[in-house]
TrEMBL record:
Keyword NADP attributed: yes
Name this protein carries in UniProt: 3-hydroxybutyrate dehydrogenase
Keyword Cytoplasm recorded: no
Pfam families, alphabetized: adh_short
Keyword tags: NADP, Oxidoreductase
InterPro entries hit by this protein: NAD(P)-bd_dom_sf, Sc_DH/Rdtase_CS, SDR_fam
């Protein structure tokens, strides 16, 4: 895609945009999507479509008081719902969105995680994978079809994570899903030239969002997540929009944003974020005491399983 992508008078779609102004465990409960909406509107976006299961009263106020923002009910794990949002854009605004931002994600929630393994054998899949991986992949394909159908260029921005190129023993499903998004985004780099759809990914470090509070209750405390080691959703949104609008970031770009700023992640030989003399820089890693707390709960689960079949046999 040649030239910068002008934000003014563009249509946007953000999923999973619920927000609250309260605080919990020192973490301001604001979603990345809400920050993106503010940036888009400030840049003169013609329309912002919020796709989610429901809105908080504050979110409803935002939609009610701003004629450029509408809400479409959507379960991102249901592909028909994703298509319905695109169809709703045509109904409301007479066109498909230009820019699609897949920001919905969960972090090893109580209902779908590796170590507690709450999903039974009849589930035949992890809900967390449906939300974190299948949803942005399918959204990208639907967005591409919609943009091609209108013979227009567009951008799909996927919110991934630094966990997409690092190991996360306490959160292996989350890490695996973010690895998938990084690989998916890189693989679609050529769509920029071939289909006119630029697919990019933003990889934040630790962000102060509800994923640590209401998303996975207690995880913020267990992992020692505080404002001191977190970046804000606004910082992520600003990095995302710089990546979306600037022609110097082609399709397949993986943009990292952390306490140390932003950098484009190369395909090979990725240097650890903030490493100084072989150690992580202050404010760029989870505290060691928090890691030990998390490991303790994991070991408690696996020790309970150790030898269980032998006991049954006897």
């Amino acid at each position: 895609m040649t030239g910068d992508f002008t934000i003014h008078r563009r249509w946007f779609w953000y999923d999973f945009l619920l927000w609250s102004s309260t605080k919990n465990n020192q973490i301001r409960v604001v979603r990345i999507g809400f920050a993106c909406a503010h940036v888009a509107l400030s840049a003169g976006a013609k329309a912002v479509i919020i796709a989610d299961l429901r809105l908080t009263p504050e979110g409803e106020k935002m939609v009610t008081e701003n004629e450029h923002v509408i809400f479409e009910k959507c379960d991102v794990a249901k592909w028909k719902d994703l298509q319905n949002v695109i169809d709703g854009s045509i109904t409301h605004f007479g066109d498909v969105p230009d820019i699609y931002i897949a920001s919905a994600g969960v972090f090893e929630p109580p209902y779908s995680n590796f170590w507690d393994d709450p999903e039974g054998l009849d589930a035949n899949g992890y809900k967390a994978v449906d939300i974190n991986v299948n949803h942005p992949i399918k959204l990208t394909r639907l967005a591409m079809r919609a943009l091609l159908g209108k013979s227009k260029r567009g951008v799909v921005a996927i919110v991934a994570s630094i966990a997409g190129y690092s190991k996360q023993y306490p959160a292996p499903i989350y890490s695996a899903t973010k690895h998938a998004l990084v690989g998916f985004t890189r693989s679609l780099g050529d769509a920029d030239a071939l289909q006119g759809v630029r697919v990019v990914a933003i990889c934040p470090g630790i962000v102060a969002t509800p994923i640590w509070t209401t998303g996975t209750p207690g995880s913020g405390e267990r992992f020692g997540i505080t404002d001191e080691i977190s970046i804000t959703p606004s910082e992520v949104a600003n990095a995302l929009f710089e990546t979306v609008k600037s022609a110097k970031y082609p399709g397949g770009t993986i943009m990292e944003v952390s306490k140390l700023g932003t950098r484009v992640i190369p395909e090979w030989h990725i240097a650890p974020v903030g490493e100084i003399d072989g150690k992580m820089a202050e404010g760029s890693d989870i505290p060691s005491d928090a890691i030990q707390r998390v490991l303790g709960s994991i070991l408690q689960v696996t020790e309970h399983e150790r030898g269980a079949l032998l006991q049954k046999a006897s």
